[in-house]
Amino acid sequence: MTLRPISAPEHREFIAGRSSASFLQTPAWASVKADWKPESIGWFRDGDLVGVGLVLYRQLPKVRRYLAYLPEGPVIEWAGDDLEEWLAPMVAHLKREGAFAVRMGPPVVTRRWSAAQVKAGIADESVRRLGDVPPHERSQEGACVIAQLHELGWQQQTGEGGFTAGQPQFNFQVPLVDEAGEPRTEADVLAGMNQLWRRNIKKADKAGVEVSLGERADLKAFHDLYVHTAERDHFTPRPLSYFETMYDALAAEDPDRIQLWLARHEGDLVAATIAIRVGTHAWYSYGASSTEKREVRGSNAVQWAMIRHALAGGAHVYDLRGITETLDADDPHVGLIQFKVGTGGEAVEYAGEWDLPINRAIYKAFQVYLARRG
């Protein structure tokens, strides 16, 4: 196994040949993260490209040393007991490039919980976290990956409530194929939702909510509603320029990569979302909703339109992205979990993010810096 930098077209072609990969590992994502220095790397066996990774380098102030970050990657064969064969050449390359540490997020599932299990956990006063609920599935592959990473000296990063240093460890997903791999029908997916979700979808339809695909010119309207949502829900919004850059970069790589969805009621924008698609994996990435006219249920309508679009396009999973691990009914994050659980999908735990210190002194100083900043 050898590793070397590869071109963006090589990287893009490899991703296109796989059934799925995180959009954070596409070469287009490098353009979105303009304050990081990007590099595409490739693994070769007998001259054939067998794996790729998008590396984002963040330089430390005043020194030519970098944190090398592979969000939700790299895109390699994680199954098996030979991870060192893949990771050793990567670490050696990144060390030569000046990395003081490597951070990566193996796209490997470790545990799954059904919507019913999550709902029961929230209702049970003795349950505080998702980990307190026995999962309906434990992944042997995930356990094998975690065991090997520990053996190889990697350190798992955890954050409050189950959020890791970068990407969420816990996600909520709606499977769009059955256990045999056959596509589910719209009726089947709808039947899997809870009664409130089905009622709200009907209510939006009866109220005359119209959902449509937007264009780049509609990003300003999306962003205005997104800023309104941020003020209401107390989070810091990203600037409009971020979404314009994201839209341009992802759409240039593949016209079906990113979609803007708009839900209107009598001409008023009541909900708006951004969806991303790579292969058979569809993500709900960003969302916004109006405080006024909440009774017309625009958020449910736009989600249902996105799920139907993903189904029609042959996606295998509809991913609502991150949830916290908390199941405490008094926690303010539970409302978001309950909204996502209503889709009837499943909570999915990934292996999380892992660091490998290369220069331990600099890495320790970096951790102190992050602790003071945060």
Automatic annotation (TrEMBL):
Keywords: Acyltransferase, Cell shape, Cell wall biogenesis/degradation, Peptidoglycan synthesis, Transferase. Pfam families: FemAB. GO terms for biological process: cell wall organization; peptidoglycan biosynthetic process; regulation of cell shape. The keyword Nuclease does not apply. One of its GO terms (molecular function) is aminoacyltransferase activity. Transmembrane segments: none annotated. It comes from the Bacteria. Belongs to the FemABX family. This is Peptidoglycan bridge formation glycyltransferase FemA/FemB family protein.
